[in-house]
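Ticket #763: bound-state structure for pteridine-2,4(1H,3H)-dione.
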Amino acid sequence: MSSTKNIENSSFIGPDFYNHVAGKSMYIDDLPVAEGTAFIKIFDAHIAHAKIKSIDFTEAEQSKGVLKIFSYRDIPNQNQIGGIIPDEPLLAEDEVHFWGQPILLVAAESEDEAEEALQKIKIEYEPLPVITNPRVAFQKNKLLSTSRKFKLGNTDTSFANCKYVFEGTADTNGQEHLYLETQGAYAFPTEHNSVKIFSSTQGPTAVQRTIARVLGVGMNQVEVDVPRLGGGFGGKEDQASAYATMTALVAYVLKKPAKIILHRMEDMRMTGKRNPYSSDFKIGLDENFKIKAYEVTFYQNGGAAADLSPAILERTLFHCTNSYFIPNVTAIAHSCKTNLPPNTAFRGFGGPQGMFVIEAAIDFAAKQLGVDTSAIQEKNLVKDGDEFSYGQILKETEATECWQEAKQKFNLEEIKQRVEAFNSSNKFYKKGYSLMPICFGISFTKTMMNQARALVHVYSDGSVGVSTGAVEMGQGVNTKMIQVAAKCFGIPEHKIKLETTNTTRVANTSPSAASSTADLNGKALQNACQQINETLNNFIKEEFKLDELTTISFQNEILFLNEKATEFTWKNIIEKAFFKRKNLSAKGHYATPIIHYDKTIEKGHPFAYHVYGTAITEVTVDCLRGTYEIDAVNVMHDAGASMNLAIDIGQCEGGLVQGIGWMTMEEIVYNEQGKLLSNALSTYKIPDIYAVPKELKIEFLHTAKDNLAILKSKAVGEPPLMYGIGAFFAIRNAVLAFNPNSTIKYCAPITPEKVLMGLYNKS
Ligand code: LUZ
Ligand code: MOS
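RESOLUTION: The complex was predicted; output attached.
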């Protein structure tokens, strides 16, 4: 076993960290406000489904400070922002489909004046029926996209041969992204009928494309610049485009800078969230508890427009058997159209929703059979050579390694005994534990999106400027990019500056998403650096009249020839090369090899690799109150060869706690009229420091298997979120320890209210 350290400076702390702590990092609302800026407020629907009978904003437009009120009629080209499917207007026309849907934009000289004008707008609706439940939508044949079906083997014949067959349902609720920085953008009119937009987006090119379409201009007339984000979590993969487009529209028409920053309650009301799912499962096992067959039907709550839901649906299917090999699978998924804000990407992108259902199915089977859930889980973990329902054959798997190391390192036997002893000696407190294995596919499921570019300039003083398509959103990707360039050139990190993400420097970017940002952009960056290295090597050979066999490298900015230090530095060589008119800039490109997928047969090899891990969770439930505490979560995680321990452990801890929040306390509530009731931080509870497990250990598996990750440092953005699923099952087990006849459902989140009901129901 080799060390996890594959890079000398695997605890390098990037420049953002100091600026964050000092409060110096600039977000959209920190940009200096330009003279003459128009401030935008959105007039949104306060009804979930209705015809607009009339709308009158003549009085509002006379209101003090108002520059103009925009309706869909003021859009120069298409009133269309749908990315995958063109089914979403920027501004509602004669119907509204969700509570919070933008109808008009008020542009005024100040935010207060815009707000005042909002109150003077008069609208009359004719209400239409509201659907909030995906199963109801499915019955009425309201679908956002074509349904999908993944199939392996034959479930019909294999269920007939199974000794045990169990059926049930499992539901997961949505999740509010709650990025610290709300949605926002600031646009400036520029020469030649163009616009420049500063946007808080994970997808600069998506913003650029959407604006070009709405304004009817070329993408070359739209420049998008992204300094950094105060969090994204998927909420700004697609939905930042709407707000950026609003500012571009106002700037383009009024020829004035235009700015929008959503207030927290506007953001919560108007934007989509993690897709809730309702699912039916059927699981079949043989006498040795090997899972032989699995059937699952997913009803995805997509909201009022497709947004990214069709792609999320697909990732749910890709993850419907989580970390297990099941030879016969039929998995069907429907994207259902409801009158909620269009639901969207959220860390895990449908994967967690699929994984929850198989975990529920296994747990249900185990409880019926009276065995430990972990016994069934362990027997069915994937191995090299196994096939997933979508045709990818597994290699370099770490499922069993993570599972076994977690069991040993964290002493599962001791946990079991402790929990049993505690439960037999305590009446009103009960403990529960669970094991949660994960297996997450790395790559955009859409093969075409797995490409990236980087632009590198070595300036004549030897300092380096790097631009990539990666968006820094707190995940530390800029730090990793600096490490990649420093390693490639053999110079210290402080010589390298990461520029903002800008569509004129790096074009046609995929969003920073799918846990793939460091892999894709890092490899493009390596490619650019290699080109410059090649130029420099040739120049050095020429200049020093070296023979072909001389090895040339820089180590800590000193030139080494044949592994021996010289008197020359990186700076000397760059100056000389510049004087000899050498090209010191390069554009790098990367497209993930190997991957492919054929949607017509639902088979292929969509993922560059998978990330594995196992979490062991221990909780205590207060059986008089229904409250609970997470005592410990211990994780054995497959990080590959981590290139930055601080960042990767941080991602694991953050993802885990966000997953626990989704599974336990974060409860999105819409009423039957489609109005969001959990509409502020007072009514929507997210994990705070007190909700973090009292003991939390992240251990990285030490292996050095080959993979397509950047510097073999595996993707870490999304996978850890799914460890949080373990908290659901641990809490549920504690409830069963108190009331073995509890009918508590597989319905997340498992809030204290649900726990209390589950503790005292009798079936
Ligand atoms: N976005 C996307 C994603 O467009 N495709 C994906 O496969 C994906 N996966 C995770 C997160 N965002
Ligand atoms: Mo994402 S859910 O990787 O934007």
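RESOLUTION NOTES: The domain at 277-445+599-760 is CATH 3.30.365.10 (Aldehyde Oxidoreductase; domain 4).
TICKET STATUS: resolved
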